[in-house]
Amino acid sequence: FTNAGFEDGDLTGWDSYVPSYAAASASTGLSHWNWSVSPQDGSYFGVAQSGLQNTYCELWQTVDLKKKDLVWGYSFFSSSDYWPFLDDGQVYVLSGDEDGSVAYTALNESVGTVGDYGSTGWGYWEFEAASTGTYTVLGRVRNIGDSGVASYVGLDGVDFEPGLIEVTFDVKPESTTNGINLKSKGVIPCAILGTAEFDVDDVDVDSLAFGPAGI
Question: Is the pLDDT of residue 112 over 80?
């Protein structure tokens, strides 16, 4: 990710769609008489603010992930609105670009769930890629019924970690017994077996270790 925690103080690396009366920015804090939100991680967080009624204000970033890669972060929904203006907001991980299908729902709230002038506060979420491909982290929020009072969706602390995958490892691949003579000073052939989703050519050979203490 680029500028994943918005610590550049702007939206560098992120894309946005901002309809009339809406806003998207890196913020140092938001407050309402019923709630306040400060950065969860660092000095800034990303926020989308609702505007034109029934139209989402969106903030997103698209990345390439491998199977089992982990993405996590924090998100919130906060509103200055009240029933029956049931503004809503979501944070999704999409499969593909910003128009892709939902692979994971990190946040899905509205005035109807948090109450009048309500807020979820920061909530942690974590996503594991089911397959190698392109994914998009998307936050969005909209006004329902009018354009007069804003609601907000925030993102912060978005991060990434390469995932671990299980592979098949065969000692003495041409033998059915896989025996090792501990007194032998010879070479022990070993094989890492590939699959349709795991290409052994991608293995960093210098990172491999085998035997006592990984010698």
Answer: yes
